[in-house]
Amino acid sequence: MAEDLNEPLDAETWELRLYVAGQTPKSVTAVANLRKYCEQHLKGRYKLEVIDLLVNPQLAEGDQILAIPTLVRKVPEPIRKIIGDLSNEEKVLVGLDVRPLAGK
Questions:
Q1: Rg of the chain over all Cα atoms, to the nearest angstrom
Q2: Cα–Cα separations (whole angstroms), residue 95 to 3, 10, 62, 101
């Protein structure tokens, strides 16, 4: 779901990866929650990749995924990880170190 947007040069594009296992309730909830937070706080400034480990289990090794669902923030560095269904918005935003956009 990468979007090619004309962004200002100073706007950093966040690269997020969410590891799930099929369409379990936790996986579905995590995807929905993350999409909502990204649209509210990172609109136009993120790339989200959802990786289903039932389809591509070998991809878990690269980011050292031990539990699912797991969200990995690749960019901006440093890499950060959050495990769970991402239902606690404040915890997710603090964990990702998301700051509100200027003027919001």
A1: 13
A2: 24, 22, 20, 17
**Segment 20-75, tens digit of pLDDT:** 999 999 999 999 999 999 999 999 999 999 999 999 999 998 889 999 999 999 99
Position 85 in a domain: yes
CA dist., res. 58 & res. 62, Å (int): 8
Residue 85, token pair as written in the block = 């269904």
Alpha-carbon distance of 50 to 32, in angstroms, equals: 11
Report long-range pairs for 56-60 (Cβ below 8 Å, ≥24 apart).
59/19, 60/19
Q: What is the largest CA-CA distance in the chain?
A: 42
Predicted TM-score of the model (pTM): 0.82
Distance of CA 61 to the CA centre of its chain: 17
CATH number, residue 25: 3.40.30.10
Count CB neighbours of 33 within 10 A. Answer: 20
For residue 46 the two structure tokens come to 């993120």
